[in-house]
Amino acid sequence: MFLLPDEMIIKHCSPTLAGMKTANMFTYPFKNEVELRDTVRRLNRLLIGKGIRILPLRYQNNCALIYLYRPSKLSKDLSHEIARTILTERGYSMQSPQCLLRDLMKRLNASADFPHEIGLFLGYPPEDVWGFMKHQAQGYKCVGSWKVYGDEKQAQKTFEQYKKCTQLYTRWYTKGRSIERLTVAV
Q: Residue 119 and residue 123: Cα distance in Å, rounded?
């Protein structure tokens, strides 16, 4: 089934729309790149006033990896000491969040795999991203939106909040609320 862009955003990005999360990403199949770019521009115009940006990170096999994020939250997340250490060790340009995103895009396009530090760009706790990298995705305490190496109790609570948010947003969207109305200004 081919979902419309707004439906895909509701399905995959509700916690970010609600202001609970820094970012989400999803793969979006497209028929032609011009149409995709027009859709991204339309959505950016619609949501920019609410503090949301949408960016295609990678194009591959008629699919785009779409990144929906809150720049203000991303800037805060990437300034965390552990996050800065991880990114510096990986050779990221620490000049600005935009430079960091540019470096992430280069890494995504250079490999079919996701760089492990991508969790920092999605708002995952830096200690969990560091734990994932250090333990090579083994020895985690629990799994939800990410693998948890730190505060399991808080992570479980967060996973449940994300799940409930997505359920509510899906219900409201199917009852006719627009993506613009569902997006919280933060």
A: 6
> Could you tell me which of 58, 74, 160, 43 has the C-alpha nearest to residue 109?
58
The candidate with the shortest Cα–Cα distance to 101, out of 112, 113, 87, 89, is 87
Query: What are 62-72's pLDDT values in tens digits?
Result: 899 999 999 99
Q: What is the pLDDT of residues 11-35, one digit of tens each?
A: 999 999 999 999 999 999 988 888 8
Contacts 24+ apart (CB under 8 A), 112-118: 112/60, 115/90, 117/86, 117/87, 117/90, 117/92
pTM confidence score: 0.93
Q: Where does residue 32 fall: left (phi above 0), alpha (psi -120 to 50 degrees), or beta otherwise?
A: beta
Distance CA 134, CA 23 (A): 23
- Is the Cβ–Cβ distance between 8 and 29 less than 8 Å? no
What the block records as the tokens of 165 is 């948010």
- Assess contact for 113 and 73: CB atoms under 8 A: no
